[in-house]
Amino acid sequence: MNHAEDPVTDLRSRPAQADDLPLLLRLMRQFYAEDRIAFDEARVARGLRQLLADPACGQALLWLDEHGQVVGYAVLTMNFSLEQGGWHVLLDELYLGPSARGRGWGGQALALARRWAQARGATRLRLEVNRHNAAARRLYLRAGYADEQRDLLTLDLGDVPA
Question: Which pTM value belongs to this model?
Answer without folding.
Answer: 0.89
